[in-house]
Amino acid sequence: MEEFHKVRRLPPYVFEQVNRLKATARAAGADIIDLGMGNPDLPTPQSIVDKLCEVVRDPRTHRYSTSKGIPGLRRAQAHYYARRFGVKLNPDTEVVATLGSKEGFANMAQAITAPGDVVLCPNPTYPIHAFGFLMAGGVIRSISVEPDERFFAPLERAVKHSIPKPIALILNYPSNPTAHVATLDFYKDVIAFARKHDIIVLSDLAYSEIYFGDEQPPSVLQVDGAKDIAVEFTSMSKTFSMPGWRIGFAVGNERLIAALARVKSYLDYGAFTPIQVAATQALNGDGSDIEEVRSIYHKRRDVLIESFGKAGWDITPPEATMFAWAKVPEAYQSMGSLEFSKLLVEKADIAVAPGIGFGEQGDDYVRIALVENEHRIRQAGRNLKRFLASAEHGPDNIVSLNAHR
Ligand SMILES: Cc1ncc(COP(=O)(O)O)c(C=O)c1O
User: Fold this and answer.
1) In this structure, are 94 and 23 located in the same domain?
2) Mean of pLDDT over the chain
3) Among protein residues, the one whose CA lies closest to atom 12 of ligand 1
4) Domain region containing 338
5) Confidence at residue 403, expressed as pLDDT on a 0 to 100 scale
6) In a domain, 397, yes or no
7) How many Cα atoms occupy the beta-carbon half-sphere of 274 within 13 Å?
8) Which of 19, 63, 168, 267 is deepest in the core (most CB within 10 A)?
């Protein structure tokens, strides 16, 4: 039987191949250090968990909630934007709470895409950016991910030569997987370009709070006039270590927000009310929870760069996100990122995400997530050192760490 039309547009996740090897190795007794998926390992701060437990005791919170989010939560998100970015938002018309930013992004794609519409999408990028639009019947044209002067020439070509003209442009800075950070000047140029060509801008700002330098990642909505064409998505998942809670936001242009809210009103009844109340408390907090999460990732980043560097793999330190985007070492470049990732699982007991899973332009890289503690990251460095040293004598000499495998 032929595969369903929609399912044909969703090839199996590349990452599954590494996951399968990981499961097999673990079943054979290996201690795999898992730096593959971007699944935060830190517990949600206790005060947020306590709030959830308190609110869930009230049976009135057990009913259907509101699809676009309870008013207090939307107000808290508007306050966050005012505090952090100096951006004023109307919580009634310019803010929608989503079931994680991924759901918000995918349903925005459903809301705005007609069959065959062209969308400009960075490559490599977080898969939903492309697949959200592919599922919605759109067509993807890849653009550069580097947020500098290299961005604009391919973008102009893409707009000039796409038929029909692109409807939307996707931005994601700090970037998953590359960890590139955009400046406000870059956003100003993008917004000017998009306004000129009447193109919608969708900015994924999931890593707004996971940064390590003095400069805070800006919001695209800080640019004058951005609200005429742009929507931005943020997430509680990384900022407050709440990935399983499924809370995120879309904010910005009123017409786009209304379109998303309309689609959602047909699909969901909103997140469970106690989750929304606890999320409201988190957003209204004094920032100390965020500071702690940030400093843990910062320390892990430093340990990763140091211990992998000592093992012989020099990695550019990421300025933001919970990932390092590491060039596959020279000797392994020809095998591609997927085979190299499999080799790391089998021979070094380390799982990473192959760059090819984020798009064809990612194949010279792997993504290393900071989701194990410092001790485990150091252990990964030692495993790597042994692997790279044994491999120096040729691929046939690579020894597994565990003789029983
Ligand atoms: C760039 C980016 N956007 C969105 C998400 C998903 O976030 P959420 O949990 O809010 O759906 C992730 C998670 O890894 C991400 O890396």
Assistant:
1) no
2) 95
3) 206
4) 5-43+289-389
5) 44
6) no
7) 16
8) 168
